[in-house]
Amino acid sequence: MVAITEFQKIGIGVMGFGLFFLLFGVLLYFDSVLLAFGNILFLTGLTFITGFKRTAHFFFQRHKFRGSFFFLGGVSLVLCRWPIIGMLVESYGFVLLFRSFFPMVLGFVLSAVNIPFLNAFFSNSSSMV
């Protein structure tokens, strides 16, 4: 079993608060202060979880430069109080950064149909249509 350090526990909490503020900022019609606070907390939590060196290595790899540029540029735009444009740029950067991860997520979601409880749920829902 993997041991979780105290910094990683704090990072999970900080990252959770960051995601909450991001969601809340979007729900309140792109409130720039909430989005900026959420972005700062999210990046701080990510740094606490993975460590400063690994976070810097992830964002500044040669093949991920464009995604990092758009993601961090979007964060900068949100901090400069351009929330809608910043979130669009940030979302594009997020997709570029994690595009190699999406097929694995899709495979996991599609394999979740083989779980007995979900299999029964999906078989019942398709018969209603």
UniProtKB/TrEMBL annotation:
Keywords assigned by UniProt, alphabetized: Golgi apparatus, Membrane, Transmembrane, Transmembrane helix
Task performed by this protein: May be involved in fusion of ER-derived transport vesicles with the Golgi complex.
GO cellular component: cytosol; endoplasmic reticulum; Golgi membrane
Subcellular location: Golgi apparatus membrane
Membrane-spanning segments: 12-30, 36-56, 68-89, 101-122
Membrane topology of this protein: Multi-pass membrane protein
Protein name per Swiss-Prot or TrEMBL: Golgi transport 1A
Homology family: Belongs to the GOT1 family.
A GO BP annotation: endoplasmic reticulum to Golgi vesicle-mediated transport
